[in-house]
Amino acid sequence: MIKAFFIKFERLLTHIWYGNSLIFLFFLPISWIYGFTVKLRRILYQFNFLSSYKASVPVIVVGNISIGGTGKTPLVIEIANKLAESGFSPGIICHGFGSKIGNFPIEVSKTNAPAEVGDESIVIARKVNCPIVVHPNRALAARTLEKKSVDVIIVDDGLQHYGLKRDIEIIVIDGDRGLGNKKLLPAGPLRESQQRLKEVDYIFVQSKNFSETIIEFEQTNNIINFYLDGSLAYKINNHESKNLHDFKGQHVHAIAGIGNPERFFNFLAGFGIKVTPHFFYDHVPLESIDLEFNDNLNILMTEKDAVKCHFFTGKNIWYIPVHLKFQNSTNLNWLKQIEDILKEKLA
């Protein structure tokens, strides 16, 4: 019952924030208070009324100004792997959403359970070869990583965590959804105002329709367009793989407990797959009963959801890993620019 309530509540908020609903007007007074609080908090950090930790190595923060999935985690994986290929020794900080972390940071391994370190950190651990530390306190996590001989720290979802100073700020935006009604929480999806777009070093926009979405953003410098792509499905627990084109014309159940489930369902439909969508809220703790549909149809899900279904048996469950692809029209020098900044900071 509780899980069903949160699913319906999240879909209602999505309708209010990204639809044409006027219900947001009722929440505007709270949004004004929230906006004032956010500005005041940042000023307190800027003028050192609140302490902020300066790590001994450069810090790259990857975040967003809106609630919901935008593609931050795949970008963190891409940056970490590319920097490692260039001779850097990165370390990654994750919040650990969906887990119960105690007072001390936890170093993530591929064998951790989502309840211990969160789903996203396990996905990252399977795709990078560098230390990953989980804790909501980014400064405390950074101190732990500094003991691991890293020379650059990448923070997954840390834009609003000003308790940790940063050298490079990256905002990731869902280019298909945009910024919704552009209102601050709770009237809209924004954690901070659009002004932050003018202040960060890079804006990564996830969309295949880049020319249509770039118009929405006033700042046009250092905007990089990417999209998530994948072509193979893997069966949980037995490593069997199958091309997504092989599901064409088939009816399947699609599971998505991510920030923007519609993106995953549309992705599958693009392969000609007949999707019965099942919406879940982000970081949902999936249980076997959630996948009981009283039929023998295949079940397709995201990789983030799959890490929570490792011990499920007796079902045709497949997950689809995705990776970043960059549009040819975008600025492809971003990585070299970041590497040059890091080398200067480390000199």
Chain-wise SSE layout:
Layout: H1 2-18, H2 28-46, E1 59-63, H3 72-85, E2 90-94, E3 106-107, H4 114-117, H5 119-125, E4 132-134, H6 138-146, E5 152-156, E6 168-174, E7 202-206, H7 210-213, E8 223-229, E9 232-235, E10 241-243, E11 251-256, H8 261-269, E12 274-279, E13 298-302, H9 303-306, E14 317-320, E15 323-326, H10 334-346
Parallel strand pairs: 1-5, 1-6, 2-4, 2-5, 6-7, 7-8, 11-12, 11-13, 13-14
Antiparallel strand pairs: 3-4, 8-15, 9-10, 9-14
Describe the protein's architecture and organization.
With 347 residues, this protein is of the alpha/beta class. The protein has 10 helices and 15 strands. The protein folds into 2 domains: 241 residues, Rossmann fold, CATH 3.40.50; 91 residues. Strands 3-4-2-5-1-6-7-8-15 form a 9-stranded mixed beta sheet, with helices on both faces.
Can you summarize this structure?
The protein is α/β, with parallel strands linked by helices. It has helices at 2-18, 28-46, 72-85, 114-117, 119-125, 138-146, 210-213, 261-269, 303-306, 334-346; strands at residues 59-63, 90-94, 106-107, 132-134, 152-156, 168-174, 202-206, 223-229, 232-235, 241-243, 251-256, 274-279, 298-302, 317-320, 323-326.
